[in-house]
Design brief:
By secondary structure, the protein is mainly alpha-helical. It has two domains: 227 residues, no CATH class; 208 residues, no CATH class. It is built from 18 helices and no strands. Helix 1 crosses helix 11, helix 9 crosses helix 13 and helix 14 packs parallel to helix 17. It is globular and about 60 Å long. Keywords: Cell membrane, Membrane, Transmembrane, Transmembrane helix, Transport.
Protein backbone atom coordinates (compact mmCIF):
# COMPACT_ATOMS: atom_id res chain seq x y z
CA UNK A 1 0.00 0.00 0.00
CA UNK A 2 1.08 3.58 -0.60
CA UNK A 3 2.24 5.76 2.22
CA UNK A 4 -0.72 7.76 3.54
CA UNK A 5 -1.06 11.24 1.98
CA UNK A 6 0.22 14.10 4.10
CA UNK A 7 -2.47 15.30 6.48
CA UNK A 8 -2.15 19.08 6.39
CA UNK A 9 -4.81 19.45 9.07
CA UNK A 10 -2.41 18.40 11.83
CA UNK A 11 1.16 19.16 12.85
CA UNK A 12 3.18 22.40 12.89
CA UNK A 13 1.68 24.77 10.32
CA UNK A 14 4.82 26.72 9.47
CA UNK A 15 7.04 23.66 9.10
CA UNK A 16 4.53 21.72 7.00
CA UNK A 17 3.81 24.72 4.77
CA UNK A 18 7.50 25.32 4.10
CA UNK A 19 8.21 21.64 3.40
CA UNK A 20 5.21 21.57 1.08
CA UNK A 21 6.17 24.77 -0.78
CA UNK A 22 9.87 24.01 -1.35
CA UNK A 23 9.33 21.22 -3.94
CA UNK A 24 6.91 23.50 -5.83
CA UNK A 25 9.52 26.26 -5.82
CA UNK A 26 12.28 23.88 -6.93
CA UNK A 27 10.05 22.64 -9.76
CA UNK A 28 9.40 26.19 -10.99
CA UNK A 29 13.13 26.92 -10.99
CA UNK A 30 13.92 23.67 -12.80
CA UNK A 31 11.39 24.45 -15.53
CA UNK A 32 12.78 27.96 -16.01
CA UNK A 33 16.34 26.67 -16.23
CA UNK A 34 15.21 24.02 -18.71
CA UNK A 35 13.74 26.73 -20.92
CA UNK A 36 16.99 28.69 -20.72
CA UNK A 37 19.09 25.64 -21.68
CA UNK A 38 16.80 24.85 -24.62
CA UNK A 39 17.03 28.47 -25.79
CA UNK A 40 20.83 28.24 -25.73
CA UNK A 41 20.84 25.12 -27.94
CA UNK A 42 18.43 26.64 -30.45
CA UNK A 43 19.76 30.21 -30.45
CA UNK A 44 23.49 29.48 -30.53
CA UNK A 45 23.46 26.57 -32.99
CA UNK A 46 20.37 27.05 -35.17
CA UNK A 47 20.41 30.85 -35.39
CA UNK A 48 18.25 33.85 -34.60
CA UNK A 49 15.42 32.79 -36.94
CA UNK A 50 15.09 29.49 -35.09
CA UNK A 51 15.15 31.21 -31.70
CA UNK A 52 12.45 33.63 -32.88
CA UNK A 53 10.46 30.63 -34.11
CA UNK A 54 10.54 28.89 -30.73
CA UNK A 55 9.70 32.15 -28.93
CA UNK A 56 6.56 32.61 -31.04
CA UNK A 57 5.52 28.97 -30.74
CA UNK A 58 6.17 28.92 -26.99
CA UNK A 59 3.89 31.92 -26.53
CA UNK A 60 1.04 29.80 -27.87
CA UNK A 61 2.07 26.81 -25.75
CA UNK A 62 2.27 28.86 -22.54
CA UNK A 63 -1.12 30.41 -23.27
CA UNK A 64 -2.70 26.96 -23.72
CA UNK A 65 -1.13 25.65 -20.52
CA UNK A 66 -1.98 28.82 -18.61
CA UNK A 67 -5.58 28.67 -19.84
CA UNK A 68 -6.18 25.48 -17.83
CA UNK A 69 -4.14 26.62 -14.83
CA UNK A 70 -7.29 27.69 -13.01
CA UNK A 71 -9.13 24.44 -13.70
CA UNK A 72 -6.17 22.51 -12.31
CA UNK A 73 -6.26 24.71 -9.20
CA UNK A 74 -9.98 24.07 -8.85
CA UNK A 75 -9.30 20.33 -8.89
CA UNK A 76 -6.58 20.81 -6.26
CA UNK A 77 -9.00 22.65 -3.97
CA UNK A 78 -11.85 20.16 -4.46
CA UNK A 79 -9.56 17.22 -3.71
CA UNK A 80 -7.98 19.06 -0.79
CA UNK A 81 -11.37 19.83 0.77
CA UNK A 82 -12.46 16.22 0.35
CA UNK A 83 -9.28 14.88 1.92
CA UNK A 84 -9.59 17.32 4.82
CA UNK A 85 -13.12 16.05 5.41
CA UNK A 86 -11.79 12.44 5.27
CA UNK A 87 -14.03 11.83 2.25
CA UNK A 88 -11.73 9.84 -0.05
CA UNK A 89 -14.69 8.70 -2.15
CA UNK A 90 -15.40 12.33 -3.08
CA UNK A 91 -11.71 12.93 -3.84
CA UNK A 92 -11.75 9.96 -6.23
CA UNK A 93 -14.93 11.23 -7.90
CA UNK A 94 -13.23 14.58 -8.50
CA UNK A 95 -10.21 12.71 -9.85
CA UNK A 96 -12.30 10.74 -12.35
CA UNK A 97 -14.29 13.67 -13.69
CA UNK A 98 -11.21 15.90 -13.88
CA UNK A 99 -9.19 13.23 -15.71
CA UNK A 100 -11.94 12.79 -18.31
CA UNK A 101 -12.17 16.53 -18.79
CA UNK A 102 -8.41 17.07 -19.20
CA UNK A 103 -7.93 14.05 -21.50
CA UNK A 104 -10.83 15.07 -23.73
CA UNK A 105 -9.80 18.72 -23.91
CA UNK A 106 -6.16 17.92 -24.65
CA UNK A 107 -7.11 15.52 -27.44
CA UNK A 108 -9.24 18.18 -29.13
CA UNK A 109 -6.44 20.76 -28.80
CA UNK A 110 -3.84 18.35 -30.20
CA UNK A 111 -5.89 17.57 -33.32
CA UNK A 112 -6.98 21.15 -33.93
CA UNK A 113 -3.50 22.52 -33.27
CA UNK A 114 -1.85 20.23 -35.81
CA UNK A 115 -3.96 21.80 -38.56
CA UNK A 116 -4.09 25.36 -37.23
CA UNK A 117 -0.42 25.86 -36.37
CA UNK A 118 0.45 27.97 -39.42
CA UNK A 119 -2.67 30.22 -39.26
CA UNK A 120 -2.08 30.85 -35.55
CA UNK A 121 1.56 31.77 -36.08
CA UNK A 122 0.71 33.97 -39.06
CA UNK A 123 -1.93 35.78 -36.99
CA UNK A 124 0.76 36.54 -34.40
CA UNK A 125 2.87 38.21 -37.06
CA UNK A 126 5.66 35.63 -36.92
CA UNK A 127 8.48 36.81 -39.24
CA UNK A 128 8.45 35.11 -42.65
CA UNK A 129 11.95 33.67 -42.16
CA UNK A 130 10.85 32.00 -38.92
CA UNK A 131 7.36 30.87 -39.94
CA UNK A 132 8.26 27.44 -41.43
CA UNK A 133 10.54 26.69 -38.49
CA UNK A 134 7.91 27.78 -35.98
CA UNK A 135 5.28 25.63 -37.68
CA UNK A 136 7.51 22.53 -37.58
CA UNK A 137 8.17 23.13 -33.89
CA UNK A 138 4.60 24.01 -32.88
CA UNK A 139 2.99 21.01 -34.59
CA UNK A 140 5.02 18.65 -32.43
CA UNK A 141 4.26 20.73 -29.33
CA UNK A 142 0.56 20.29 -30.06
CA UNK A 143 1.11 16.53 -30.21
CA UNK A 144 2.66 16.81 -26.75
CA UNK A 145 -0.38 18.63 -25.31
CA UNK A 146 -2.15 15.48 -24.00
CA UNK A 147 0.90 14.48 -21.95
CA UNK A 148 1.58 18.07 -20.85
CA UNK A 149 -2.03 18.50 -19.69
CA UNK A 150 -2.12 15.07 -18.04
CA UNK A 151 1.10 15.68 -16.12
CA UNK A 152 -0.03 19.13 -14.98
CA UNK A 153 -3.37 17.72 -13.83
CA UNK A 154 -1.82 14.82 -11.92
CA UNK A 155 0.60 17.21 -10.23
CA UNK A 156 -2.31 19.40 -9.11
CA UNK A 157 -4.27 16.37 -7.86
CA UNK A 158 -1.33 15.06 -5.85
CA UNK A 159 -0.81 18.45 -4.24
CA UNK A 160 -4.48 18.35 -3.24
CA UNK A 161 -3.83 15.26 -1.11
CA UNK A 162 -0.78 16.88 0.45
CA UNK A 163 1.99 15.49 -1.79
CA UNK A 164 4.20 18.04 -3.52
CA UNK A 165 7.37 15.90 -3.52
CA UNK A 166 6.23 13.22 -5.97
CA UNK A 167 5.25 15.71 -8.73
CA UNK A 168 8.61 17.45 -8.24
CA UNK A 169 10.59 14.22 -8.56
CA UNK A 170 8.94 13.30 -11.85
CA UNK A 171 9.12 16.90 -13.09
CA UNK A 172 12.87 16.79 -12.44
CA UNK A 173 13.07 13.56 -14.44
CA UNK A 174 11.24 15.27 -17.31
CA UNK A 175 13.57 18.31 -17.21
CA UNK A 176 16.72 16.18 -17.21
CA UNK A 177 15.44 14.00 -20.07
CA UNK A 178 14.50 17.11 -22.05
CA UNK A 179 17.98 18.57 -21.60
CA UNK A 180 19.59 15.28 -22.69
CA UNK A 181 17.35 14.65 -25.72
CA UNK A 182 17.61 18.22 -27.07
CA UNK A 183 21.09 18.02 -28.64
CA UNK A 184 20.59 14.35 -29.61
CA UNK A 185 17.49 15.09 -31.68
CA UNK A 186 18.45 18.56 -32.94
CA UNK A 187 21.82 17.45 -34.36
CA UNK A 188 21.17 13.73 -34.91
CA UNK A 189 23.88 12.44 -32.61
CA UNK A 190 24.52 8.69 -32.49
CA UNK A 191 21.50 6.61 -33.58
CA UNK A 192 19.10 9.54 -33.35
CA UNK A 193 17.75 11.31 -36.48
CA UNK A 194 18.70 14.93 -37.20
CA UNK A 195 15.43 16.82 -36.78
CA UNK A 196 16.64 20.40 -36.43
CA UNK A 197 14.27 22.72 -34.60
CA UNK A 198 11.55 20.04 -34.51
CA UNK A 199 14.00 17.96 -32.47
CA UNK A 200 13.64 20.41 -29.58
CA UNK A 201 9.88 19.86 -29.59
CA UNK A 202 10.27 16.08 -29.90
CA UNK A 203 12.61 16.18 -26.90
CA UNK A 204 9.85 17.84 -24.88
CA UNK A 205 7.26 15.31 -26.05
CA UNK A 206 9.45 12.27 -25.30
CA UNK A 207 10.64 13.57 -21.94
CA UNK A 208 7.14 14.50 -20.82
CA UNK A 209 5.66 11.19 -21.99
CA UNK A 210 8.28 9.08 -20.23
CA UNK A 211 7.88 11.11 -17.05
CA UNK A 212 4.08 10.78 -17.20
CA UNK A 213 4.32 7.00 -17.66
CA UNK A 214 6.67 6.86 -14.69
CA UNK A 215 4.26 8.89 -12.54
CA UNK A 216 1.30 6.70 -13.50
CA UNK A 217 3.31 3.54 -12.79
CA UNK A 218 4.30 4.95 -9.41
CA UNK A 219 0.68 5.71 -8.47
CA UNK A 220 -0.48 2.26 -9.59
CA UNK A 221 2.39 0.42 -7.92
CA UNK A 222 1.88 2.29 -4.64
CA UNK A 223 -1.91 1.86 -4.79
CA UNK A 224 -2.28 5.58 -4.37
CA UNK A 225 -5.61 6.78 -3.00
CA UNK A 226 -6.16 8.71 -6.27
CA UNK A 227 -5.21 5.83 -8.58
CA UNK A 228 -8.19 4.75 -10.67
CA UNK A 229 -7.78 1.28 -12.20
CA UNK A 230 -10.00 -0.88 -14.39
CA UNK A 231 -12.41 -1.59 -11.55
CA UNK A 232 -12.89 2.17 -11.10
CA UNK A 233 -13.93 2.94 -14.68
CA UNK A 234 -17.33 4.17 -13.51
CA UNK A 235 -15.60 7.08 -11.79
CA UNK A 236 -14.47 8.41 -15.17
CA UNK A 237 -18.09 9.17 -16.01
CA UNK A 238 -18.46 12.93 -15.84
CA UNK A 239 -20.17 14.21 -12.70
CA UNK A 240 -21.91 17.37 -13.88
CA UNK A 241 -21.82 19.03 -10.46
CA UNK A 242 -18.07 18.53 -10.21
CA UNK A 243 -17.50 19.58 -13.83
CA UNK A 244 -19.53 22.75 -13.25
CA UNK A 245 -17.40 23.59 -10.21
CA UNK A 246 -14.18 22.97 -12.16
CA UNK A 247 -15.22 25.37 -14.91
CA UNK A 248 -17.04 28.05 -12.88
CA UNK A 249 -14.34 28.19 -10.20
CA UNK A 250 -11.41 27.45 -12.49
CA UNK A 251 -12.00 30.01 -15.23
CA UNK A 252 -11.70 33.07 -12.91
CA UNK A 253 -8.42 31.70 -11.55
CA UNK A 254 -7.16 31.19 -15.10
CA UNK A 255 -8.24 34.70 -16.07
CA UNK A 256 -5.81 36.06 -13.48
CA UNK A 257 -2.95 34.72 -15.62
CA UNK A 258 -4.47 36.35 -18.70
CA UNK A 259 -4.78 39.72 -16.96
CA UNK A 260 -1.15 39.58 -15.84
CA UNK A 261 0.04 38.69 -19.36
CA UNK A 262 -1.97 41.46 -21.00
CA UNK A 263 -0.73 44.05 -18.51
CA UNK A 264 2.88 43.04 -19.15
CA UNK A 265 2.31 43.45 -22.89
CA UNK A 266 0.90 46.93 -22.25
CA UNK A 267 3.87 47.88 -20.06
CA UNK A 268 6.29 46.61 -22.70
CA UNK A 269 4.63 48.75 -25.36
CA UNK A 270 5.09 51.84 -23.15
CA UNK A 271 8.73 51.03 -22.50
CA UNK A 272 9.44 50.54 -26.22
CA UNK A 273 8.71 54.23 -26.82
CA UNK A 274 11.82 55.19 -24.81
CA UNK A 275 14.23 53.47 -27.18
CA UNK A 276 16.41 50.41 -27.35
CA UNK A 277 18.49 51.04 -24.23
CA UNK A 278 15.45 51.43 -21.98
CA UNK A 279 13.69 48.44 -23.56
CA UNK A 280 16.82 46.31 -23.15
CA UNK A 281 17.17 47.44 -19.53
CA UNK A 282 13.56 46.49 -18.82
CA UNK A 283 14.03 43.14 -20.57
CA UNK A 284 17.09 42.36 -18.44
CA UNK A 285 15.18 43.24 -15.27
CA UNK A 286 12.29 40.99 -16.32
CA UNK A 287 14.74 38.07 -16.46
CA UNK A 288 15.58 38.63 -12.79
CA UNK A 289 11.97 39.24 -11.78
CA UNK A 290 10.99 35.86 -13.19
CA UNK A 291 12.95 34.23 -10.38
CA UNK A 292 12.07 36.82 -7.71
CA UNK A 293 8.34 36.06 -7.96
CA UNK A 294 8.80 32.29 -7.76
CA UNK A 295 8.82 31.98 -3.93
CA UNK A 296 5.51 33.84 -3.65
CA UNK A 297 3.92 31.71 -6.36
CA UNK A 298 5.11 28.50 -4.70
CA UNK A 299 3.96 29.60 -1.25
CA UNK A 300 0.61 30.74 -2.64
CA UNK A 301 0.04 27.35 -4.30
CA UNK A 302 1.03 25.57 -1.07
CA UNK A 303 -1.33 27.78 0.94
CA UNK A 304 -4.24 26.82 -1.36
CA UNK A 305 -3.65 23.11 -0.78
CA UNK A 306 -3.11 23.42 2.97
CA UNK A 307 -6.03 25.79 3.50
CA UNK A 308 -8.33 23.61 1.36
CA UNK A 309 -7.70 20.57 3.55
CA UNK A 310 -8.35 22.61 6.68
CA UNK A 311 -11.51 24.11 5.21
CA UNK A 312 -12.70 20.56 4.55
CA UNK A 313 -11.85 19.65 8.15
CA UNK A 314 -13.45 22.91 9.40
CA UNK A 315 -10.19 23.83 11.14
CA UNK A 316 -10.49 27.58 10.71
CA UNK A 317 -7.79 28.18 13.29
CA UNK A 318 -5.35 26.41 10.98
CA UNK A 319 -6.65 28.31 7.95
CA UNK A 320 -5.69 31.53 9.75
CA UNK A 321 -2.35 30.01 10.71
CA UNK A 322 -1.73 29.08 7.07
CA UNK A 323 -2.28 32.69 5.97
CA UNK A 324 -0.06 34.00 8.73
CA UNK A 325 2.81 31.59 7.99
CA UNK A 326 2.48 32.14 4.25
CA UNK A 327 2.88 35.91 4.59
CA UNK A 328 5.91 35.54 6.85
CA UNK A 329 7.58 33.03 4.53
CA UNK A 330 6.91 35.32 1.57
CA UNK A 331 8.75 38.20 3.24
CA UNK A 332 11.62 35.93 4.29
CA UNK A 333 12.19 34.05 1.01
CA UNK A 334 11.40 36.90 -1.40
CA UNK A 335 13.45 39.31 0.72
CA UNK A 336 16.40 36.93 0.68
CA UNK A 337 16.31 37.05 -3.12
CA UNK A 338 15.77 40.78 -3.47
CA UNK A 339 18.59 41.88 -1.17
CA UNK A 340 21.50 40.34 -3.13
CA UNK A 341 19.90 41.34 -6.43
CA UNK A 342 19.99 44.96 -5.23
CA UNK A 343 23.49 44.80 -3.76
CA UNK A 344 24.95 42.90 -6.73
CA UNK A 345 22.70 44.22 -9.48
CA UNK A 346 25.64 45.56 -11.50
CA UNK A 347 26.75 41.95 -11.98
CA UNK A 348 23.40 40.15 -12.17
CA UNK A 349 21.90 42.52 -14.74
CA UNK A 350 25.13 42.46 -16.76
CA UNK A 351 24.48 38.75 -17.42
CA UNK A 352 21.71 39.76 -19.82
CA UNK A 353 23.29 42.82 -21.43
CA UNK A 354 26.25 43.29 -23.79
CA UNK A 355 29.56 44.34 -22.26
CA UNK A 356 29.72 48.09 -21.74
CA UNK A 357 26.02 48.57 -22.55
CA UNK A 358 24.52 51.95 -21.63
CA UNK A 359 21.37 50.04 -20.71
CA UNK A 360 23.05 48.72 -17.55
CA UNK A 361 22.68 51.99 -15.61
CA UNK A 362 19.05 52.28 -16.72
CA UNK A 363 18.41 48.69 -15.61
CA UNK A 364 19.98 49.31 -12.20
CA UNK A 365 17.90 52.45 -11.75
CA UNK A 366 14.56 50.85 -12.59
CA UNK A 367 15.42 47.70 -10.65
CA UNK A 368 15.99 49.71 -7.46
CA UNK A 369 12.52 51.22 -7.83
CA UNK A 370 10.43 48.25 -8.95
CA UNK A 371 11.91 45.07 -7.48
CA UNK A 372 10.54 45.78 -3.99
CA UNK A 373 7.02 45.48 -5.38
CA UNK A 374 7.35 41.69 -5.31
CA UNK A 375 7.19 41.73 -1.51
CA UNK A 376 3.70 43.26 -1.78
CA UNK A 377 2.83 41.02 -4.73
CA UNK A 378 3.72 37.99 -2.61
CA UNK A 379 1.32 38.95 0.17
CA UNK A 380 -1.52 39.27 -2.36
CA UNK A 381 -0.64 35.92 -3.88
CA UNK A 382 -0.60 34.18 -0.50
CA UNK A 383 -3.88 35.72 0.66
CA UNK A 384 -5.51 34.87 -2.68
CA UNK A 385 -4.34 31.29 -2.27
CA UNK A 386 -6.00 31.08 1.14
CA UNK A 387 -9.33 32.73 0.31
CA UNK A 388 -9.87 30.76 -2.89
CA UNK A 389 -9.50 27.53 -0.90
CA UNK A 390 -13.17 27.91 0.05
CA UNK A 391 -14.27 28.66 -3.51
CA UNK A 392 -14.08 32.46 -3.32
CA UNK A 393 -12.44 33.04 -6.72
CA UNK A 394 -14.16 36.18 -8.06
CA UNK A 395 -12.92 38.72 -5.46
CA UNK A 396 -9.20 37.87 -6.01
CA UNK A 397 -9.79 38.29 -9.75
CA UNK A 398 -11.46 41.67 -9.23
CA UNK A 399 -8.68 42.80 -6.89
CA UNK A 400 -6.06 41.84 -9.47
CA UNK A 401 -7.98 43.58 -12.25
CA UNK A 402 -8.32 46.74 -10.14
CA UNK A 403 -4.64 46.82 -9.20
CA UNK A 404 -3.36 46.16 -12.73
CA UNK A 405 -5.88 47.92 -14.93
CA UNK A 406 -7.26 50.42 -12.44
CA UNK A 407 -3.90 51.45 -10.95
CA UNK A 408 -0.76 50.14 -12.68
CA UNK A 409 -1.56 50.81 -16.32
CA UNK A 410 -3.31 54.19 -15.76
CA UNK A 411 -0.58 55.37 -13.34
CA UNK A 412 2.16 54.48 -15.82
CA UNK A 413 0.26 56.11 -18.68
CA UNK A 414 -0.87 59.31 -16.95
CA UNK A 415 2.25 60.07 -14.92
CA UNK A 416 4.74 59.90 -17.80
CA UNK A 417 4.31 63.61 -18.50
CA UNK A 418 5.71 64.31 -15.02
CA UNK A 419 8.02 61.39 -14.36
CA UNK A 420 8.98 60.13 -17.80
CA UNK A 421 9.96 56.44 -17.85
CA UNK A 422 10.07 56.45 -14.04
CA UNK A 423 6.26 56.46 -14.11
CA UNK A 424 6.40 52.94 -15.52
CA UNK A 425 8.82 51.74 -12.86
CA UNK A 426 6.90 53.35 -9.97
CA UNK A 427 3.64 51.84 -11.21
CA UNK A 428 4.85 48.43 -10.03
CA UNK A 429 5.19 49.17 -6.28
CA UNK A 430 2.17 51.49 -6.26
CA UNK A 431 -0.16 48.92 -7.84
CA UNK A 432 1.29 46.01 -5.84
CA UNK A 433 0.77 47.95 -2.57
CA UNK A 434 -2.85 48.61 -3.55
CA UNK A 435 -3.37 44.92 -4.35
CA UNK A 436 -1.91 43.91 -0.99
CA UNK A 437 -4.13 46.31 0.96
CA UNK A 438 -7.26 45.23 -0.93
CA UNK A 439 -6.40 41.55 -0.41
CA UNK A 440 -5.86 42.02 3.32
CA UNK A 441 -9.12 43.98 3.60
CA UNK A 442 -11.05 41.23 1.86
CA UNK A 443 -9.37 38.58 4.00
CA UNK A 444 -10.39 40.46 7.15
CA UNK A 445 -13.90 41.63 6.26
CA UNK A 446 -14.93 39.74 3.12
CA UNK A 447 -17.35 36.84 2.90
CA UNK A 448 -14.87 34.28 1.62
CA UNK A 449 -15.47 31.97 4.62
CA UNK A 450 -19.04 31.42 3.39
CA UNK A 451 -18.04 30.55 -0.17
CA UNK A 452 -18.15 26.96 -1.40
CA UNK A 453 -16.83 24.88 -4.28
CA UNK A 454 -19.86 22.56 -4.54
CA UNK A 455 -23.49 23.37 -3.62
CA UNK A 456 -23.80 20.07 -1.75
CA UNK A 457 -20.99 21.17 0.56
CA UNK A 458 -22.62 24.45 1.51
CA UNK A 459 -22.91 23.76 5.22
CA UNK A 460 -19.46 22.23 5.66
CA UNK A 461 -17.55 24.90 3.79
CA UNK A 462 -19.68 27.88 4.75
CA UNK A 463 -19.39 27.34 8.46
CA UNK A 464 -17.89 30.40 10.12
CA UNK A 465 -15.11 30.02 12.68
CA UNK A 466 -17.54 30.86 15.44
CA UNK A 467 -19.78 27.95 14.43
CA UNK A 468 -17.03 25.35 14.45
CA UNK A 469 -16.77 23.25 17.61
CA UNK A 470 -13.72 23.97 19.73
CA UNK A 471 -10.60 22.18 18.49
CA UNK A 472 -7.44 21.38 20.39
CA UNK A 473 -4.74 23.99 19.75
CA UNK A 474 -2.18 23.14 17.09
CA UNK A 475 1.56 23.25 17.80
CA UNK A 476 1.56 26.75 16.26
CA UNK A 477 -0.15 29.45 18.30
CA UNK A 478 -3.26 29.44 16.12
CA UNK A 479 -5.36 31.27 18.67
CA UNK A 480 -3.14 34.30 18.94
CA UNK A 481 -4.38 37.51 17.35
CA UNK A 482 -4.01 37.17 13.59
CA UNK A 483 -1.46 39.70 12.24
CA UNK A 484 -2.99 39.55 8.77
CA UNK A 485 -6.44 40.36 10.01
CA UNK A 486 -8.19 36.99 10.40
CA UNK A 487 -10.89 36.83 12.92
Amino acid sequence: MAKAPLDLTTGPIGRNLLLFALPILAGNIAQSLNGSVNAIWVGRFLGEAALTATANANNIMFFLIGSVFGIGMAATILIGQAMGAKDTAQARRVMGTSATFFIGLSAVIAVAGWWLSRPLLAAMGTPAASLPLAEAYLRVIFLAMPTLYAFAFLSSALRGVGDSRTPFRFLLVSVLLDIVFNPLLIFGLGPFPELGIAGAAWATLIAQTLSLIGLLWYMRNKRHVLWLGRKDMALFKVNLEILKALVIKGVPMGLQMVLISLSMIMMMSMVNHYGTDTAAAYGASLQLWTYVQMPAMAIGAACSSMAAQNVGAQRWDRVRGTARSGVLFNFALTGLLILPLILLDRYTLALFLPSGSEALDVARHLNHIAIWSFLFFGVSFVISGVVRSTGAVIPPLLILAASLWGVRVPFAELMQDRLGADAVWWSFPVSSLCAMLLSLAYYRWGGWRKARMLPSHREEVAASPAEVPAQPPSPVADHDPDPVGGR
